[in-house]
Amino acid sequence: MSDRTSLGPPSLADNRLTRRRIITDRLATTLVYGAFLLALAPLLSVAWTLLSKGIERLDGNFLYTSMNNIAAFDDRGGAYHAIIGTLEQAGIATIITVPLGVLGAIYIVEYGRGWFASAIRFFVDVMTGIPSIVAGLFVLAFWVLVVTPVFNDGRPGFSGFAAALALSVLMLPTVVRSTEEMLRLVPAALREGAYALGVPKWLTITRVVIPTALPGIVTGVMLAIARACGETAPVLLVAGGNPAINFDPFSGNQSSLSLYVFEQAGVASPYAPARAWAAALTLVTLVLTLTIAAKLLARRNTLTR
Amino acid sequence: MAKRIQANSVTAYYGSFKAIDSITMTIEPKSVTALIGPSGCGKSTFLRSINRMHEVLPDARVDGQLLIDGQNIYDRDIDVTAVRRMIGMVFQRPNPFPTMSIYDNVIAGLKLNGVRRKPMLDDACEKALSSANLWEEVRDRLNRPGGGLSGGQQQRLCIARAIAVEPQILLMDEPCSALDPISTLAIEDLISELKNEYTIVIVTHNMQQAARVSDRTGFFSIDRTGEPGRLIEYDDTTKIFTNPSIKRTEDYITGRFG
Ligand SMILES: Nc1ncnc2c1ncn2[C@@H]1O[C@H](COP(=O)(O)OP(=O)(O)OP(=O)(O)O)[C@@H](O)[C@H]1O
Ligand SMILES: [Mg+2]
Fold first, then answer.
1. For a surface tag, which of A163, A250, B147, B244 has the fewest beta carbons within 10 Å of its beta carbon?
2. Ligand 1 pocket, residue B14 CB under 6 Å
3. Can you name the residues that pair with B171 across neighbouring β-strands?
4. Which residues pair with B219 in a beta bridge?
5. Ligand 2 centroid, distance to B61 Cα (angstroms)
6. What's the longest Cα–Cα distance across chain B?
7. What tens-digit pLDDT sequence spans chain B (258 residues)?
8. Residue A12 above 70 pLDDT?
9. Which ligand is nearest to the CA of B37?
C-alpha cells in the first residue's frame, strides 16, 4: 500500500508491488511450514520412541499373561491384568459419564434458564480444573473409606469400580462441555423446522438435534476417555494396583495400563523398562483404535449411505 | 379441509420490544394471501404468530386472539404441537434435516408423530413429493442425504415435508428468496395448485410474485424504526396493485416498481 504514490487503481504491471507480494508470500509460507514441522517433531519423536522401544516385548506372552509370580530376574511377565483393568475402569466410567454428561448438556442448552443453569455451568467449569489426584482423594475419602466399609465388615473397599468413579469425576466436565458446544452449533433453523412439523421438543432433541451433533459429541467423549485411560494417580489411590488378574471390578485391587507403566518404570529389574514401554505402546494403540472405531461408527450413523 | 384464519388484535413482543401492534385480519380458506412491506415491519413475526412459532424464541410472546375456524389457538388448553401440525410452515432458507435421507426428511413429521406403517409412509412420501413437483427428480435417490440437493430442490423438499403431515394451512416466509427464476416459477405454480387444498399465507418482497400468486394482499409498514409494525391496507390483490386506497401503499408499490 505505502508503495503507491498516487491514488487510483494500481497498474497491472507494478513490478515493485508484485515482487513485494511474492516475497511476503514466500516468507509466510516458509514460516507456516516451519511451525508445522516444529510442532510435528516432538509428536513424531514420541511415536518413534514408543514404537521402537515398545515393540520388543509386545508379543503374545506380554498381552496374555499377568505379573503374578514374576520375580525380578524373570524376563517374562505381561500386562493382561492391566489391560483388563483399563478396559473395565474406563468402560464403567464411560457408562456413568456419557448419559449423565449428555443429559446435563441437553439441560443446559435446551431447557436451562436462569440461575440454576448458570450455577450448573459454573460448577462444570470448576470441575474441569480439578487435578486428578484430588478426584482420587475424593473417591478414597468418600467411597473407599466411608461407604464401602458399611457393606464390607468395616474393611475399606479398594476396587476397579472406585477407580472408575474417580475417572468419572474427571470425565464428566469434559463430556458436558464438549457436548454443550456441539449442541449449540446445531442451527436454530433445524429445531424450528422440526417444531413447525408439530414434533414435540424432546423428540426434536433426540431425533434431530442429537444426530446432527453426534460426530462432535463422539469426539468429545473419546477425548475424555483417552484422558481417563492415561490417569495413574486416582487408580493407584483407590484401586491399589494388583500384579494378578482380577476380572471383578467391584471387589479387590485392580491395576491399569498407566499404573502398570508407572510401576514397571520404577521397579529394580533389568526387564522392567521393556515391559513399561510395551505397556505404553499398548495403551496408545488401545486409545487410538477406540477413537477411530467410534468416529467410523458415528459417521456411518449420520451420513445416510 | 382448509381453514379460515382470523387475527384479532394480534400483538407480538420480543422481550419488551413490541414488533407488531394490533393486527386484525381475516384470511379465507383456499386462498392465497400475500404479506408485503418494507424490511423489519413485522411480516415474519406475524406469520410466526399464526402457528405459535413466535414463542419458541426466549422472552417472545403474543397478545390477542388468533382464531382458526373459530378456535383460538392461544387458549390455555390448546396443544401447541397439534396447532403446528395443522399449520405447516416453509422457511426462507431451505432447512432439510442433514442427517436424514430425502425419504426420511419427507416423512419426518409423520414418523416423529408416531406413524410407523411402512406402506403408509411410502404412499405419503410419494404423494407429498409429487405435490411439491419433486418426485420425478428424486425418485431414484430417495436414500441419498437431503442436503445433497440443489437449493431449489431443497426448498421443494421442505415444502413436501410440510405438506406430508397434511396441514390445513401453509405459511411461507419468503420461500423463493434464495432461488433462481426457474425454481421460483416452479414454486409459484406449486402454490397455485396447493391453493385448491390449503389456505396459504406467503410473505414476499417480490411485488410481481405477490401479484401473480395471491388473491388478497396485506401491506405492513412501520412509522419509524423502533415503532411496531402495523397492517396498513388489506384488500384484493388486483385492487392493491391497481388502485390502492391508501397513499402509503401506493408509494411503496410504485417505489418498488418504478
Ligand atoms: N429474534 C428477535 N429478537 C428481537 N427482535 C427481533 C427478532 N426478530 C425480529 N425482531 C425485530 O422485530 C421487528 C420485525 O421483524 P420481522 O422479522 O418480523 O420483520 P420482517 O417484516 O419479516 O422483515 P424482513 O422483510 O426483513 O424479513 C424488527 O424490528 C426486528 O428487528
Ligand atoms: Mg422476514
1. A250
2. yes
3. B89, B201
4. B36, B233
5. 17
6. 56
7. 678 899 999 999 998 999 999 999 999 999 999 999 998 899 999 999 999 999 998 889 999 999 998 889 998 899 999 999 999 999 988 999 999 999 999 999 999 888 889 999 999 999 999 888 889 889 899 999 888 888 888 999 999 999 999 899 999 999 888 778 887 888 898 898 888 888 999 999 988 899 999 999 999 998 888 889 999 999 999 998 888 888 888 888 887 543
8. no
9. 1
Which residue of B85, B97, B101 is in closest CB contact with A198? B85
Q: What's the grid cell of residue A117?
A: 443453569
Residues of A in contact with B108 (CB under 8 A): 194, 197, 199, 208
The C-alpha atoms of residue B128 and residue B141 are separated, in whole angstroms, by 16
CA of A8 to the centre of ligand 1 (A): 40
pLDDT interval class at A5 (50, 70, 90): low
- State pLDDT tens for residues A224-249: 999 999 999 999 999 988 899 999 99
Query: Grid coordinates in use for A82?
Result: 492391566
Ligand 1: which atom is nearest the Cα of residue B220? 21
Cα three-residue angle A84-A239-A289, rounded to 5 degrees: 35
Which three-class secondary structure state does DSSP give residue A198?
coil
Q: Is B40 touching ligand 1 by the criterion CB < 6 Å? A: yes
Q: Which amino acid is at A222?
A: M
Of all atoms in ligand 1, which is nearest to the CA of residue B47?
18
Whether ipTM tops 0.85, in short, is yes
What residues have CB less than 8 Å from A57, skipping those under 6 apart?
Answer: A274, A275, A277, A278
Cα A106 to its chain centre, rounded Å, is 21
Are residues B161 and A197, on separate chains, in Cβ contact within 8 Å?
yes
Per the document, the length of chain A is 305
- CA separation for the pair A217, A298 (Å, rounded): 9
Residue A1 has a pLDDT of 47
**Ligand 2 centroid – CA B53 distance (Å):** 13
Domain limits, chain B: 5-95+169-253
Dihedral of CA B26/B29/B35/B40: which sign?
positive
- CB contacts, 8 Å: A212 with chain B: 97-99
| Superfamily covering domain A60-304 | MetI-like (1.10.3720.10)
Q: Give the best residue of A191, A197, A199, A301 to mutate against chain B (max B CB count within 10 A).
A: A197
Distance CA(A189)–CA(A17), nearest Å, equals 46
Which is it for the CA torsion A234, A237, A242, A246, positive or negative? negative
Give the nearest partner residue to A303 out of B112, B145, B162, using CB atoms: B145
Q: Mutation test of the interface with chain A: which of B53, B90, B95, choosing the one with the most A Cβ atoms within 10 A?
A: B95
Interchain proximity A197–B95, CB inside 8 Å: no
Nearest Cα residue to atom 22 of ligand 1: B44
Fold assignment, B5-95+169-253:
Rossmann fold (3.40.50)
Residue at A132: amino acid letter:
S
